[in-house]
Amino acid sequence: MNKLRKSIGLAIFMFLLVACNNVNPKESKIPINSIETVDASVKYAQIVDTLDLKGNRTFTEVLKDPDSKKYYHDAYNKLINNKDIHFLETAIQIVEYNNTWRKGFEFVDGSNGENDEYIEDFINQEVQIEGKKFTITPLKTLVVGESIDDYLKLSSQIIKGSYFSKEDYLMPTNDKINVVLGSSYQELFKIGDTFDFFYLGVNFNANVIGFINKGIRIPASGRLVIVDNYIIFPSFNVNLESNDLKRYTQHYSTKVAGSILYKTNNELKLVKDEIENVFKPYDLPYTIIETSNTKIE
To answer: Are 144 and 235 in contact (CB under 8 A)?
Structure first.
């Protein structure tokens, strides 16, 4: 997450938002039936924070604020219930496969098919967590929210098994979590297989419930991601009464950092104002930046 936060922070200086005449974003409907064939008229922007920049709070200060989990929880609910914006709860995440990895470089985070000689250094790292030794490998992972299917219809792109149910988005009471895998994983796993991975320092046992069609593209973290080599897991909702302030805040800071679909620069300007107003009451500096439609593996 720190790697992602730093890259997003730098990206703010690389993009300029175009300010134009006002238009009601409700007038612009986003006709997406499947992200497999993205409508060329549909663009997407990325929600980013400007924490740690001069004059703003640092993320470390936010993590120490006892009210931060309520602030993020409230801001998240405003985002998903706002009818004036098209919010996609998606984010690229790094999870650590908790076992010896012998599957292939293309699934490892950072691999792009051209730099595999460097990726080998990240495979099967020996680490200690709370005094215990583990062998971990960072894998390409995408986290998706429950409402994403309203826009992208990912459930219709499952070629084997099933997509997430409503229950999958509830915070697991044990260490088990259902995952959907990209099409390239069919050679490595089958429905019902399980494996362990670390997320936010917690070890989860992943249960493979489905495989998604080849070539599916999903906007996430400022990119258009081809998910063939990705693990997809649900962005579960955490009970506000959770006592784990740091993990709760980290998790919800990822949930709010989704993508926004739009069609015109006028709409983008209004959506930018709308996003900033969502976070302003909580002293959480967030905005949106335009992103390219660059596809990545």
So the answer is: yes
